[in-house]
Amino acid sequence: MALLEVNDVEVRFGGIVALSGLTFDIDKGQICGLIGPNGAGKTTMFNVISRIYDPTAGTLRFDGQDLLTTPPHLISKTGIFRTFQNLALWENMSVIENVMAGAHVRSKQNFVTAMLNIGRKGEERRLAGEAFAILSDLGLGDVAFKQCAGLPYGTLKRIELARCLIGKPKLLMLDEPATGLTHSEVGELSKVIEKVRTDYDLTILLVEHHMGLVMGVSDKVVVLDFGRKIAEGLPNEVQENPAVISAYLGAPA
């Protein structure tokens, strides 16, 4: 059963067509790689699903519901979380505080209880425990109480992932997670992605230029070029598709 259904999505910025007639779906529990050359429309699609952009045409359904009726500020409450190409962490906060911030959608606090300081400390203790457990699961327990500033780039990428996981996502969207990582760190990232998919019962949409990573972890791959889907299928099928080879290498299709 499809968790995410994208149907005939079009996005225009004035006279520029960023996405045209894009249709694909992702089944619950799948890892779907979304790839294509620079400017193909991958991040635009991420921003449509995140409700940052409104499509010019088309429909999106998530977990059986019309996603386009969900206000952008409530998108995480539906179970959709994402990372970004550029890190979005608070450097002067501790690692565990950064992770706890991802649980804001699950907070039971409201204006009155926050103002009167009712139940805040208990909730903070509970979330701190959850955050530490997730960090430990990702091999980051030893840096939980350090500031983010000065930590290795690969560590910061995992912290951002942990911040998503504490929100209990259904769909996790990873935007260029291998950017800036060393070869060995990319290999470790592949294992982490597969582990969190299983351990946290996730469906994952992955945008990434590192083809070894995408082809190694994805159950299916969707390929974009100039805003259009040119291929969809199993990783080995996509790798051998003449249109995909042409888009990446400039060879005749």
Description:
It is a single chain. The protein is α/β, with parallel strands linked by helices. 34% of the residues lie in helices and 25% in strands. The chain has 9 helices and 10 strands. The chain has a 6-stranded mixed beta sheet with strand order 6-7-8-3-9-10, with helices on both faces. Strand 7 (171-175), helix 6 and strand 8 form a beta-alpha-beta unit. The longest helix has 18 residues, at 120-137. The mean pLDDT is 90.
Distance between the termini: 33 Å
User: Which stretches are low in confidence, meaning pLDDT under 50 for 5 or more residues running?
Assistant: none
User: Sheet with the most strands?
Assistant: 6 strands, mixed
Mean pLDDT score: 90
Shape: globular
Structural class: alpha/beta
- Beta strand count: 10
Q: Which range does the strand content fall in?
A: 15-25%
Number of helices: 9
- The ordered H/E elements are EEEHEEEHHHHEHEHEEHH
Task: Provide the spatial order of strands within the biggest beta sheet.
Answer: 6-7-8-3-9-10
Relative helix content: 25-40%
| Gyration radius from CA atoms, angstroms | 19 Å
